Amino acid sequence: MWGSVPRPWDHDLSQNQESILNQLSHPDKAPLSKGLLLVPSALSLLLALLLPHCQRFFAYDLQAIKDDFQIWRLICGRIICLDLKDTFCSSLLIYNFRIFERRYGSRKFASFLLGSWVLSALVDFILVEAVWYSFGIAAAGNLPSGFLAPVFALFVPFYCSIPRVQVAQILGPLSITNKTLIYILGLQLFTSGSYIWIIAISGLISGICYNSKMFQVHRVLYVPSWMAKFFSRTLEPIFSSSEPTAEARVGMGATVDIQRQQTMELLDRQLMLSQFAQVRRQRQQGGMINWNRLFPPLRQRRNVNYQDDRRSEQQASPPLEVSEEQVARLMEMGFSRGDALEALRASNNDLNVATNFLLQH
């Protein structure tokens, strides 16, 4: 989606453009994310507080699956977290990853979760056997339970397709971006247990396989259209919320952090719409994007200055030095190098202002 970066689970942009735009026009309808956020969390609390004696039925024990053929543990042990810390961290991550359901629709989001969930189960067996034969460590009966592997798998499209926007800079080269908190939550979840690193690695491997369409798994592991329609009619009215009013969309958060998050989500939707507009123009012009139409004020201003006062332009000061790192970030979002340079010079090397400038001109 952003330059040469592969797009997750997006098979054909032209066929799915209308459904994606519908998701963008209704950004607050993410029923699957809300269901994964509420139902497993409620069941985890119920098991921990009221039914602790039933937790053994939801333990993720690969040894019991292998030796006693308790196949049902592959389902029960990989849905509900028995550790409340894992429940809390995974719920926060699912809440932040709801952006993918808003982008691509509930069906593709569910297909990615289903594919990574199934693939990670196979990778779990391989990693556990590898640990046993390599180090003599029996980890099959101590794996953490819960819907954790698909959560780790979502870090793959999050890293590939979500642009990195700097929020603050600390200690010289270190900077805080819109993605820093998500990575910190993932690190917290990664270090919450002894063998959760096995689940994390299997989730990342399954996410890479599905995201890169390796072995054509996206054609085998997906949610059928009839099932998507069924759940859309039955569960979507329960977990969907109405679209907020125009007055409360952006800038109405109770804290500065909430307002910044709302602004980031609006900017992400604007970037998506800009990409669709570029693809349409590229198809209409046979593979070439007409940047003169995309940035008319920028071109017109330069031409007018050139024609009105040619001598003053020749005597002008040398152009402002532009950070190559910021140019690379804008190019990752899909803009050309020339337009990125002009926008950064016009905005005095302010990446946020340059991004908005390119989107609006």
TrEMBL record:
Q: Which organism is it from?
A: Felis catus (Cat)
- Indicate where this protein is primarily found: membrane
Instruction: Check the record and name the CDD domains matching this protein.
Output: UBA_UBAC2
A Pfam family this chain is assigned to: UBA
InterPro entries annotated for this entry? Rhomboid-like_sf, UBA, UBA-like_sf, UBA_UBAC2
Native organism taxonomy: Eukaryota, Metazoa, Chordata, Craniata, Vertebrata
Gene that encodes the chain: UBAC2
Describe its membrane topology. Answer: Multi-pass membrane protein
Q: Where does this polypeptide localize?
A: Membrane
User: Where in the numbering of this chain does the UBA domain appear?
Assistant: 321-361
**Cross-referenced PANTHER family, in alphabetical order?**
RHOMBOID-RELATED PROTEIN (PTHR43066), UBIQUITIN-ASSOCIATED DOMAIN-CONTAINING PROTEIN 2 (PTHR43066:SF21)
This protein's UniProt keywords: Membrane, Transmembrane, Transmembrane helix
Query: Which positions, given as ranges, span the membrane?
Result: 32-51, 112-135, 141-160, 181-205
Protein name as it appears in the record: UBA domain-containing protein
